[in-house]
Every structure is written in C-alpha cells, then in structure tokens.
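Design request, tokens follow.
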C-alpha cells in the first residue's frame, strides 16, 4: 500500500518522460556529479561539452584543458584524469560507444552501481534503479527501507517496488529531495507524503513528549 501511494504521488507531482540523451554525455556528467552539488555538476558539464562532445575529443585533449572547464565540479584533477581514461577505454574496447550493459559499464574506472544505472535509465531507457544520496535518504525517511548504504537501499527498493516503476524513481525522488525532503530542514509542512513517512511520525512523537 505504501509503495502504490508513493508511486501515485510521484507520478502525479513529477511526471517522468524519457528523453533521448547521448550516452557519453550521461556517463561523463554522472561521473562529474560525484561528491558535488547538482548545480555545480550542471555548470561543469555544460562547460566541458561546449568544448568536447565525443570520446575521441576528450581522449586527445590535454589534462589541463579538461581540468579548466570542470573546476566547478570539485576534485577536478582526479575527475579529468578519470574521464580521459574512460574515453580512451571506450575507444579501445567498445569501438567508441558507451556500453549498454550493467556489467560492462562497471568495468570502466570510477563507474559504480549508481553511475551504471544512470546510464541505463537516462541514456538507454532501460529498467534500472539508480540510488544516489537523495534516493537513499528519502527511502529511509519514508520507511520504505532500513539500510546503511546506497547499495543496500538499491537491493531493498528493488524487492518492494515493481520493476515497471524503477525507471522514474531516481529523477522523481531527486526533484522531491531538492524541493521538499531536503537533507537539512525538510519541508514536512507542505509534503504530500506525511501519512506514509516514518521520519515525520518520529518528529511529531518527539514534539509531544
């Protein structure tokens, strides 16, 4: 019952449409997003892709020329080396195409489960469930899962959410997390999921004591 109400709420508030996105840009943007804020990722990605749009272009670029545009994403030296290495591997092992299988994506350096699942959903439109900090936090707050790590959250969510609903969950919960269920000072007073939320119930119990 909780899952069906959650899915209904998210679909109503945050309608999800898959738009055709370039797999290479999805992959690189997701790597840039690691350990940085969403808005900084968007700036860094826009800067980078205004200069380089293909694996070949990044593979041939000097590191300092990759570092400069991605500085807003933080850890830019590490990320520049990583995305150039990934670009060269894509050219050498995958004929210039980002792999479309989860297992092959995980062979790329710096690509973990979240990044691989993002590529599957947002580039290839496959049924996958990327779990980032928003999804991990909100799933535990609502009481959908009780987990310590995003990997555990992914496994538990897949066991309670039907596969046909996996694809939109990340984008919807990320938006919900930005607007309402924020890491600090969540906007519980305007949340449409209070009736389902364990976090909200605990807060009310504390206030009543």
């Amino acid at each position: 019952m909780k899952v069906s109400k959650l899915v209904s709420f998210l679909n109503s508030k945050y309608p999800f449409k898959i738009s055709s996105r370039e797999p290479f840009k999805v992959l690189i943007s997701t790597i840039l997003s690691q350990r940085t804020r969403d808005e900084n990722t968007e700036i860094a990605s826009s800067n980078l892709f205004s200069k380089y749009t293909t694996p070949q272009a990044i593979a041939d670029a000097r590191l300092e020329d990759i570092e400069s545009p991605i500085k807003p994403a933080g850890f830019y030296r590490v990320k520049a080396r990583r995305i150039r290495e990934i670009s060269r591997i894509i050219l050498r092992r995958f004929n210039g195409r980002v792999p479309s299988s989860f297992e092959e994506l995980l062979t790329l350096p710096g690509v973990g489960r979240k990044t691989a699942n993002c590529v599957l959903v947002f580039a290839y439109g496959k049924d996958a469930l990327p779990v980032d900090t928003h999804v991990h936090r909100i799933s535990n707050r609502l009481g959908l899962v009780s987990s310590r790590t995003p990997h555990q959250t992914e496994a538990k969510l897949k066991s309670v959410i039907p596969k046909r609903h996996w694809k939109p969950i990340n984008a919807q919960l990320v938006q919900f997390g930005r607007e309402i269920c924020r890491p600090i000072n969540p906007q519980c007073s305007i949340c449409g999921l209070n009736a389902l939320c364990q976090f909200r119930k605990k807060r009310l119990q504390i206030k009543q004591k």
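Comment from the thread starter after seeing the answer: thanks! The chain has two domains: 2-15+130-208, 23-123.
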